[in-house]
């Protein structure tokens, strides 16, 4: 017999007796010897009240064996001589598109402008330590895409777009822990994700797929509303039948190429702002009411905040408890910041993007002459401004949070996890008014929602500008571009995803559509 139960366990109870099997037996009134096992189906923490509670959803096995393997199976087969499908980009969308092609008997040919995860590490070190940006190998470009070295969060609201569990199970199949199947806010960690991505690469290669790193698509050959060939690195021509375009939200050259080829693209609303960094113990104290010391059974506390200001949402984005702020520029002459956390989330800082909705029709009028690339050009302008305000290196402009809200320059800054360093700058006056004024009011509101959040011990760092693509590549009901019948815009770069999981699901859908 298998019984599903819900348990609420207080923090003191969790500390005193962590044996979930004994708790299940007590709840059901069963002899513990009859309980052959307990599977945690879901685990979350409710810290809304003074007493922190752990919520468990459990499958309790009574006189019955636990299943020995997952109900999900991935039927990979030798496709070395099968029909080819070309995939541009090897982030989550491209990886899962390639895996799905193999399951369905087609050969993926993956073209990735960046390097594999091992070689990519050197270029990321160069950004952090030497302030040198490689335009094709950085925190955004390379094997695994932007998620590889910026956290591996698996949160998603895209529950109706596909089988979320299947995406998670495939990550477990490639080396992720079972915890991601259980946690309410699953997370792999920047330190563990590269190894999982390497195993995905090995699966694709072992079954006959191809992955070409440091291979940049620079042009399309068009004939009768189809792409017949790709030009690689301005010289080599590669014939194609079906093309899945999964280049991510920062591949600006692809957007510019589409416009040059008169292939329809559209301006899209997105969000921009700053990244705020607190000492983790402050966030722990606010969220858990625990004073300076967080109990060992509690993870580093996270938060989620949203406030409407003058008709626009101001909200937290990609919150990283126990994490680091990283430089995410993709070209020289710009400063972009993002956040990441290791799997243990044991760094002494907490950081989060705090961003404002940018309405493509109403907020970008001064950039309207750029047409569909208005948002992209607005992004560029703020990233260039951030570069200049930071001293024309990867040093980032920053301000104490309270000074930003009060509208005054910080005479000193707090310690930060941002490795290239910070430089005091008046971000309250440098940011465009429609952005900066909303951020200041949003932070003031957040201080009322989380008492202690607006503190002199927090920094804000500019700019957080790559939350999502500012461009949408249209597609019809068959997921093809309405003009180009064999082009399948996919994932974040096409405007159809907002994170690792939704991008992976869209990659699978596009592979299925291309094959169909």
Biggest β-sheet strands, sense, barrel: 7 strands, mixed
Strand order of the largest sheet: 13-14-17-12-20-18-19
Task: Categorize the overall geometry.
Answer: globular
- Radius of gyration from the alpha-carbon trace, in angstroms: 24 Å
Average predicted confidence as pLDDT: 95
- Distance separating the two termini: 42 Å
Give the proportion of residues in helices. 25-40%
How many strand segments?
22
Strand content: 15-25%
Q: What structural category characterises the helix and strand content? A: alpha+beta
How many helices?
14
Low-pLDDT ranges:
none
In short:
With 516 residues, this protein is α+β, with helices and mostly antiparallel strands. It has helices at residues 11-16, 20-28, 92-103, 117-130, 164-173, 193-206, 252-260, 280-288, 374-389, 401-406, 427-430, 433-449, 491-494, 500-515, and strands at residues 2-10, 35-46, 53-62, 84-88, 107-111, 210-212, 217-222, 227-232, 236-239, 243-245, 266-267, 270-279, 306-309, 312-320, 324-327, 337-340, 349-358, 396-400, 422-424, 459-464, 471-472, 487-489.
Based on the model shown, name its key terms:
single chain, 516 residues, alpha+beta, 7-stranded mixed β-sheet, 5-stranded parallel β-sheet, 14 helices, globular
């Amino acid at each position: 017999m298998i019984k599903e139960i819900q348990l609420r366990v207080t923090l003191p109870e969790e500390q005193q007796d962590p044996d979930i099997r004994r708790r299940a037996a007590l709840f059901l009134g069963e002899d513990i010897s009859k309980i052959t096992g307990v599977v945690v189906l879901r685990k979350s923490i409710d810290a809304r009240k003074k007493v922190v509670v752990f919520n468990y959803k459990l499958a309790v096995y009574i006189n019955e064996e636990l299943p020995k393997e997952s109900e999900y199976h991935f039927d990979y087969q030798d496709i070395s001589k099968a029909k080819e499908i070309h995939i541009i980009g090897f982030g989550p969308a491209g990886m899962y598109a390639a895996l799905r092609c193999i399951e369905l008997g087609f050969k993926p040919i993956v073209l990735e402008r960046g390097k594999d995860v091992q070689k990519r590490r050197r270029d990321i070190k160069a950004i952090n330590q030497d302030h040198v940006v490689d335009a094709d190998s950085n925190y955004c470009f390379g094997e695994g895409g932007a998620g590889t070295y910026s956290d591996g969060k698996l949160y998603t609201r895209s529950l109706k777009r596909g089988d979320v569990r299947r995406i998670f199970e495939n990550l477990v199949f490639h080396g992720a822990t079972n915890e991601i199947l259980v946690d309410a806010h699953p997370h792999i960690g920047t330190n563990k994700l590269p190894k999982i991505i390497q195993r995905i690469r090995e699966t694709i290669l072992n079954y006959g797929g191809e992955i070409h790193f440091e291979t940049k698509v620079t042009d399309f050959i068009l004939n009768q509303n189809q792409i017949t060939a790709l030009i690689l690195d301005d010289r080599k021509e590669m014939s194609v039948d079906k093309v899945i375009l999964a280049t991510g939200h920062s591949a600006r050259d692809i957007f510019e190429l589409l416009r040059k080829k008169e292939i329809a693209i559209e301006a899209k609303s997105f969000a921009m702002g700053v990244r705020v960094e607190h000492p983790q113990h402050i966030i722990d104290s606010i969220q858990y009411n625990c004073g300076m010391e967080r109990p060992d059974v509690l993870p580093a506390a996270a938060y989620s905040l949203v406030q409407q200001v003058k008709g626009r949402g101001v909200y937290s984005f990609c919150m990283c408890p126990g994490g680091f702020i990283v430089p995410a520029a993709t070209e020289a002459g710009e400063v972009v910041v993002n956040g990441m956390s290791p799997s243990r989330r044991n760094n002494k800082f907490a950081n989060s993007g705090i961003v404002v909705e940018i309405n493509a029709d109403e907020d970008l009028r001064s950039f309207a002459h750029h047409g569909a690339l208005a948002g992209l050009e607005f992004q560029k302008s703020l990233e260039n401004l951030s570069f200049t305000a930071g001293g024309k290196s990867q040093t980032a402009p920053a301000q104490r949070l309270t000074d930003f809200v009060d509208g005054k320059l910080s005479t000193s800054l707090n310690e930060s996890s941002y490795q290239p360093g910070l430089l005091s700058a008046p971000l309250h006056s440098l940011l465009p008014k429609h952005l900066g004024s909303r951020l200041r009011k949003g932070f003031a509101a957040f201080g009322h929602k989380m008492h202690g959040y607006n503190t002199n011990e927090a920094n804000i760092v500019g700019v957080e500008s790559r939350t999502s693509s500012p461009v949408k590549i249209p597609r019809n009901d068959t997921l093809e571009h309405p003009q180009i019948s064999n082009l399948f815009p996919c994932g974040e770069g096409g405007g159809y995803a907002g994170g690792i999981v939704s991008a992976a699901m869209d990659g699978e859908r596009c592979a299925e559509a291309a094959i169909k």
